[in-house]
Design a protein that fits this description.
This protein has about 230 residues and is of the alpha+beta class. The protein is built from eight helices and ten strands. The strands form three sheets. It has a four-stranded antiparallel β-sheet. A four-stranded antiparallel β-sheet has the order 7-6-5-8, with helices on one face.
Length: about 230
């Protein structure tokens, strides 16, 4: 299969949130290196490598435009050039985030709904769609295993991913599924303590193009583009 690309939000590599979250997952998607996970006494005895296996393969991120193969005739450089222009036209903004549950997963989530995040997501879904090849029958069948609603199925076909626009839920995943509610609460408490200094107002100041060389490979940051527009003060 061809490489896949994705438009993700990822903190800059020199930020405390990136370093700490990547260490928790056990991998730095900028450097392409495995990391030593911190030992959390509250989670002693748990298989943290297994607990973080799924998000580790994607790298610490929030999905803005879900993974896609490039449409015929489009080069990687064209995608990167467009991403640079897309980011340059945007201004940084702040949103308070903290570890929280999202169904059976744990992730950094908004503490309050953010119109800025909603707008960034919508723009990424729409504007980068020109680069996306139609989903293969394999990918359609894989996504439809989730028993989508008719509206979600229509979005899957139209945009390559079912959970967009009104179904968008900002999240930067920290764990795989934790089915046991008591265990999930235990892990959440440990992560809330571990990331206490990183919780709160977070500056969203760029987007990143991630690349997956093949379906067995992990995703890696191809390039990050900072927001360059300066908002005029009132």
């Amino acid at each position: 299969m061809s490489p896949r690309y994705a438009i993700y939000y990822a903190p800059a590599p020199d930020t405390a949130l990136w370093r700490k979250a990547s260490a928790w997952l056990g991998r730095d998607a900028y450097a392409g290196q495995d990391l030593t996970r911190p030992a959390l006494a509250e989670l002693d005895g748990l298989d943290l490598h297994a607990l973080t296996a799924d998000p580790r393969g994607y790298g610490f991120h929030a999905t803005l435009k879900a993974p896609f193969e490039l449409t015929a005739g489009v080069a990687e450089t064209e995608l990167l050039d467009f991403a640079a222009r897309f980011a340059a036209a945007r201004a940084p903004f702040e949103v308070a985030i903290a570890p929280a549950a999202l169904g059976r997963f744990l992730a950094f989530r908004e503490q309050q709904p953010s119109a800025e995040l909603e707008a960034l997501h919508s723009a990424c879904v729409r504007d980068f769609d020109r680069f996306r090849a139609p989903l293969s029958d394999f990918d359609l069948a894989r996504r439809r295993k989730a028993q989508l609603t008719s509206e979600q199925d229509a979005r899957l076909i139209a945009w390559g991913y079912p959970y967009v626009f009104e179904d968008f839920r900002f999240h930067m995943t920290l764990t795989g599924q934790i089915r046991d509610e008591e265990l999930r609460e235990r892990v959440l408490a440990a992560l809330s303590s571990h990331f206490a200094e990183e919780a709160g107002p977070h500056r969203f100041d760029g987007v990143a193009v991630f690349k997956q060389a093949n379906r067995e490979a992990p995703f890696a940051v191809l390039q990050r583009f900072g927001f360059e527009t300066v908002l005029a003060s009132a």
